[in-house]
Amino acid sequence: MHIFIQAIPNLLTLLNLFFGFLSVMYSAQGDYRNAAILILIGMMLDSMDGRIARMLQVESELGKELDSLADIVTFGVAPAMMAYYSYFSQFGLIGMGMAGLFPLFGAYRLARFNINAIQSSLKYFTGVPITAGGGLLTLLTLFQGKMPEIILPIAFFVICFLMVSTLKIPSLKEIPLPKYGIIVTIFLATAIYFVIKKEPQRFPYFIYVAIPLYIAFISYQLVKTKRKRNQ
Fold this sequence. Notes:
Blueprint: H1 2-28, H2 32-56, H3 61-86, H4 92-115, E1 124-126, H5 130-142, H6 151-164, E2 168-170, H7 181-198, H8 203-230
Antiparallel strand pairs: 1-2
Membrane topology: Multi-pass membrane protein
InterPro entries: CDP-alcohol_PTase-I (IPR050324), CDP-diaglyc--ser_O-PTrfase (IPR004533), CDP-OH_P_trans (IPR000462), CDP-OH_PTrfase_TM_dom (IPR043130), CDP_ALCOHOL_P_TRANSF_CS (IPR048254)
Subcellular location: Endomembrane system
């Protein structure tokens, strides 16, 4: 039983990696919507595996290394493939080289984080995490038809730079997982899937509502945590 409990976080991480692989396959077929859905679900799994490992007290070096390997596929290679097939492919070999920069910068970011993990602060990240960078690139690629074409390549290279920069990015590690948060996350993932699958035209409006609500929730949690610390 204990061995099974130890394996739960790693199974979530492997599922994250598998979704990243499937996303690459969908991008190669030109199905960017499903490719994006898989990356976004991968982001949810990535936010869960570490929390569950700490909750079950089964954190391990294997899990940490496995998490980095999954991240480079799901949030490095998969978004880069989306960007390549939907935009950079028009530039031939040069486009391949440009798209390949994203997982290279992301791999460097992950390696730097791993060797500095002990010294890392809970309050901030050094450089944009690859999960956030890959998620942002995914959304920009998915909706590039609704934006000026120049935005995607500019954002692509800006995100690459931010990942390897020494900028201090606020961390959300200290924000506690809400009660039943895992169930809520799974429910939201299912809801997003059906919104996109059944009524894709409504998805942009869903994003316009969901993002402000998410930012408001995070802000509330930050203020609440700060007040508790000052008491």
